[in-house]
Amino acid sequence: MSDIAIRGVRKSYGRIETVHGLDLAFGAGEFVVILGPSGCGKSTLLRMIAGLESITAGEIAIGGRVVNRLEPRERGCAMVFQNYALYPHMTVAENIGYALKVAGVPKAERLRRIAEVGRSIGLDGLLDRRPAQLSGGQRQRVAMGRAIIREPKVFLFDEPLSNLDATLRVQMRIEIRRLHDRQGVTSVFVTHDQTEAMTLADRLVVLNAGRVEQVGTPEEVYHRPASRFVAGFVGSPPMNVVDATAAGPDTVTFGGLQLTVPPHGLERGARLAVGFRPEDAVPTAQAAPDGPVAAIDLVEDLGALRLLRGRLGGADVVVQTAAGTRHGRGPLPLQIAPSAIHLFDAETGLRLAPRAVRAAAA
Amino acid sequence: MQKRATFRNLWLASAFIAPQLLLVFVFFYWPTAQAAYWAVTLEPAFGGGNQFVGLENFRAVFADANYWASVGASLLFAVGCTAVAVGAALVLALFADRGLRGHRLYRFTFFLPYAVPAAAVGLTFRFIFSPDAGLLAGINHVVPGLWNPALDGNDAFVLVLLGQSWKMIGYNFVFLLAALQNLPRTTIEAAAMDGAGVLRRMWDLQVPLLTPTLFFLLMVNITDSFVDSFALIDVTTHGGPARATMLMVYKIYLDGFESKDYSLAAAQSMVLMALIIGLTVIQFRVVERRVHYR
Ligand SMILES: Nc1ncnc2c1ncn2[C@@H]1O[C@H](COP(=O)(O)OP(=O)(O)O)[C@@H](O)[C@H]1O
Ligand SMILES: [Mg+2]
């Protein structure tokens, strides 16, 4: 179990820089999820920690030891790859036990530990098979077993669940989290799936185009997204974001409609983005004068809840209602509590913090 | 609807495939049939038509100790060349695979020797390995008489073996490098994470995963050493000294065109053909049965 420190880390391929100076610290025993869209540099960061990719600038320390110049095997990390990366010509047992064999562990001891790990990850009867004779889920377990048996100081996961079907993905997700709760090994888990990220993480790092957008607990990231990007990426469905203009210190307008927001000390005419979660927009029978009215054109019934999709102020929006409500297509007046509204700067995309105290004094 | 072109007009279709068929027939089936005919007949010493003699020619071939010596030399030559050419190419490819800049140029230059006709290879090697003027002449200054392929059978054998290997190394290298670069990168990386060093990864992963390619190259190299070594030997050693480099294919040529005994030569070429067909069948069987992981 080790902490990981990432200081000013950059990565360039040729002249193109893909990771632009990351500063992050992961505590010992923490489960950190790195979340971001495809191509934002998640794998690159993980592979730099693992030692599979050189570090262009900055340094990475694992357990207080700078590892920039160390070989992968000297860093004490185990990695699970998205495509499993099993050794196709070896049996399941040989796959799992390869690290021990390389380390020169005697055969009897090796077999004992392979059997033990095989049992713990539910591969009992399959140890003599080749990877080609396994299902996707079983292959993923072998990859897990191969990482577990080494008793590493750090687990690195590169989208390990992406190739599984939905049911299996949920099941493996739970198993990975249980494993972490049992063993408490520092884990860095990379994914583009925000549900995976929210459910697994002690702490979330949201990455966008090689830069950190936000670091925080899933709760913080969900309830106080640091930028318009995070707001639009986290949540299922994600937050609605509409371009707007400030009409006063606590009012914004968009598309001829008005919305009251908590006092932000807004300057009249400032350009903003207004965000609200689908579950925070409540359909009302009585529209407030100039209040928001969404034009609903699609209804998705998910059983436990219903999603009403449509347009508002020139943007696509989603409104989430309870099952059994009967709102259909057409204009839908909405009520949005000021406390549920998030404001972002139109230029920088950064979150604007409410200035409750100053506004009250004024 | 079928996507492939179909011809209603049988004549047109025939016209299209005729040139190819003609080539195959004239340069393959006809000579083969001719050889088969000669192999079971004898030409009377004083003219007249060929007489059918059954397996008599084969009996004569198999009773000849020189023939068996040429078989032995050919087998040794095949094993030696294949080991050197595939082994050296494997080592080169394994190291070239480790992030070499400009490997395209590399690949091109390595492949070139395969495009050089065997006779030209032979000529080059005759110069390089000439005991008094070649690059190796130096060792004769240090230890006089140590290297002389014109007199020493072993030296001559090594000379043609190196010539044949040199010609095949580039070919093997290109195939092996391509196969190596097609191996999934993460599999090799997983082994690095598992603690295996560079050499260990080569031995435990890359070489086993190359088995299909290696089997293919084994087949090509052995066949090539049986057949294509003719020009090389004709230019360098003429099968000598003292029959040391008398490979099967060269003996066929000498018996047929120097001694003018077509029947004996034809019988030998039938044996060589059977040998190569047999090898090919066996190796394809092995490749199909043993060498599939996916
Ligand atoms: N070996 C490489 N050479 C050049 N560019 C690369 C290489 N690997 C990744 N990249 C680029 O770096 C960026 C980040 O890639 P990656 O870390 O794989 O993204 P992610 O895992 O978040 O999808 C991408 O734009 C990708 O094209
Ligand atoms: Mg990736």
UniProtKB/TrEMBL annotation, chain A:
Q: Which gene encodes it?
A: ugpC
Q: Where in the cell is it found?
A: Cell inner membrane
Q: Which PANTHER family has this protein been placed in?
A: MALTODEXTRIN IMPORT ATP-BINDING PROTEIN MSMX, SN-GLYCEROL-3-PHOSPHATE IMPORT ATP-BINDING PROTEIN UGPC
**Principal location class:** membrane
The membrane topology of this protein is: Peripheral membrane protein
Keywords associated with the record: ATP-binding, Cell inner membrane, Cell membrane, Membrane, Nucleotide-binding, Sugar transport, Translocase, Transport
Pfam name, any one: OB_MalK
Ranges for the ABC transporter domain? 4-234
- Name this protein carries in UniProt: sn-glycerol-3-phosphate ABC transporter ATP-binding protein UgpC
In the record, the note on similarity to other proteins reads: Belongs to the ABC transporter superfamily.
- Top-rank taxon: Bacteria
- Translocase is among the record's keywords: yes
Leader sequence residues: none
Q: What is the lineage of its organism?
A: Bacteria, Pseudomonadati, Pseudomonadota, Alphaproteobacteria, Hyphomicrobiales
GO molecular function of the protein, one example?
Answer: ATP binding
One GO biological process term is:
glycerol-3-phosphate transmembrane transport
From TrEMBL, chain B:
Main location per the UniProt record: membrane
GO BP, one annotated term: transmembrane transport
Keyword Membrane (UniProt): yes
Which ranges of the sequence are coiled-coil? none
Q: Which GO terms describe its cellular component?
A: plasma membrane
Q: Where is the ABC transmembrane type-1 domain?
A: 71-283
Q: Which PROSITE patterns match?
A: ABC_TM1
What binding partners and quaternary form does the record give? The complex is composed of two ATP-binding proteins (UgpC), two transmembrane proteins (UgpA and UgpE) and a solute-binding protein (UgpB).
One Pfam family from the record: BPD_transp_1
Q: Which UniProt keywords apply?
A: Cell inner membrane, Cell membrane, Membrane, Transmembrane, Transmembrane helix, Transport
Q: Which residues cross the membrane?
A: 67-96, 108-129, 156-180, 201-222, 262-284
Query: How would you describe this protein's topology in the membrane?
Result: Multi-pass membrane protein
The protein's matches in InterPro entries, at most eight in alphabetical order, are given as: MetI-like (IPR000515), MetI-like_sf (IPR035906), UgpAE/MalFG_permease (IPR050809)
Q: What does this protein do?
A: Part of the ABC transporter complex UgpBAEC involved in sn-glycerol-3-phosphate (G3P) import. Probably responsible for the translocation of the substrate across the membrane.
- Subcellular location field: Cell inner membrane; Cell membrane
| Protein known as | sn-glycerol-3-phosphate transport system permease protein UgpA
- Organism of origin is Lichenibacterium ramalinae
What family does the entry list?
Belongs to the binding-protein-dependent transport system permease family.
